[in-house]
Amino acid sequence: xxxxxxxxxxxxxxxxxxxxxxxxxxxxxxxxxxxxxxxxxxxxxxxxxxxxxxxxxxxxxxxxxxxxxxxxxxxxxxxxxxxxxxxxxxxxxxxxxxxxxxxxxxxxxxxxxxxxxxxxxxxxxxxxxxxxxxxxxxxxxxxxxxxxxxxxxxxxxxxxxxxxxxxxxxxxxxxxxxxxxxxxxxxxxxxxxxxxxxxxxxxxxxxxxxxxxxxxxxxxxxxxxxxxxxxxxxxxxxxxxxxxxxxxxxxxxxxxxxxxxxxxxxxxxx
Length: 270
Prior knowledge:
By secondary structure, this protein is mostly beta strands. Helix content is 6%, strand content 49%. The protein has two helices and 24 strands. It has helices at residues 3-14, 159-163, and strands at residues 24-31, 37-40, 46-50, 53-57, 63-68, 77-82, 85-90, 95-99, 110-111, 120-125, 131-136, 141-146, 154-156, 168-174, 177-182, 186-191, 196-201, 207-211, 214-219, 222-227, 233-237, 245-249, 252-256, 260-266. The strands form six sheets. A four-stranded antiparallel beta sheet has the order 1-24-23-22, with no helix packed on it. It has a four-stranded antiparallel beta sheet with strand order 2-3-4-5, with no helix packed on it. Strands 6-7-8-9 form a four-stranded antiparallel beta sheet, with no helix packed on it. Strand 3 (46-50) and strand 4 form a beta hairpin. The longest helix has 12 residues, at 3-14. The chain is globular. The chain starts with a helix and ends with a strand.
């Protein structure tokens, strides 16, 4: 097992509802504008896009690069494809652009209308090389598009009618599985070919992420860990309040409030 998988299983095995907040250690804080979007890569570099610019800050908090993104307008999402390719999504312009690891912008942006996508709302990286998941909210359809401009793509149509997924709020691929959640708390899981594997019903989470075999939801100042293999749930108290987004990179948790991103580690031995 990788260190990340070992960490998750050790964490899940040790969790108790009465776990204390002082098990958390604040490692770093990052400012983010209310309308900003962000991402964390496997090396714990933090990317933040807001106020017509995108920044890259390293794992110890040093600003490494900053780039203007005026041509994109306000970004709706940043996705890390690999260490050399970052995807920027503009819902406003219905387009996708690309940056390298120094935030140098390439000139091969993609107009999503070329794929007959009417109203893209969310994107997610794919384990399939040079491919990206895109949700067309208007048509309730998922597209797996090629970033190298080939005509090959897959689609999963009528999510609302077939699966009763309405008002989708979250989408993420992890371990060759695509997780799609709607406002009611329903989460459906698809394989890389777009075939439905399972659906789960949860309360409406304030924030959600997926790592390995775990659905990790933030609700009522607690984190719920749901093991999709054995269907067991465990809970952990939050270190902070009013979390709107959460991510997990390596052994670090990142919690986003309205104007801050907090990087925390967790002591499993207290």
